[in-house]
Amino acid sequence: MTEARAGTGIPDPPDEFGRDLIVNVAVICNTGQQAEHYVRLRADGAGLLPAVDAVNEEAREPHACGMAAIAFRRDKTMDTQSINGRPVSIVRISVVAGYDGERWGPAPVPVQYTVMEEDGFAV
Fold first, then answer.
1. What's the CA gap between 98 and 108, in Å, rounded?
2. Do the Cβ atoms of 34 and 54 come closer than 8 Å?
């Protein structure tokens, strides 16, 4: 059984990707440092997309961080910080599948980093 975030409109991934997955739309980054930079920018008042764009520009990689609809397993908490007084964790995740708006497919980059609130959902 998957743990789908209410209101995302994303269907559960097929059973072939496994069970006990978290399903969400989230900002994901290639490295923990990129995720930390994203959190610092958000904490300093940057909006979601400007923060993602700034991280990508600094990394000189257009897809270092970005929004994605994913099915993943939580791996390891790398750091805890806050955004606007809300505690968040930078978490290494194992991405099992991505959703392109029509169908689920295998993840091209299985290890990513995301930012999660205490309730366990990515932000």
1. 9
2. no
Residue 91: CB atoms within 10 Å = 23
pLDDT above 80 for 2: no
What residue segments make up the domains of the chain, in order of their start?
3-9+19-117
Alpha-carbon gap, residue 33 to 48, rounded angstroms: 17
Instruction: Write down the H helix ranges in the chain.
Output: 32-43, 48-59
Strands of the chain (E only): list them: 3-4, 22-29, 65-83, 86-99, 104-106, 111-117
SS3 state at 13: coil
- pLDDT, tens digit, 9 for 90 and up, residues 81-107: 988 889 999 999 999 999 998 999 998
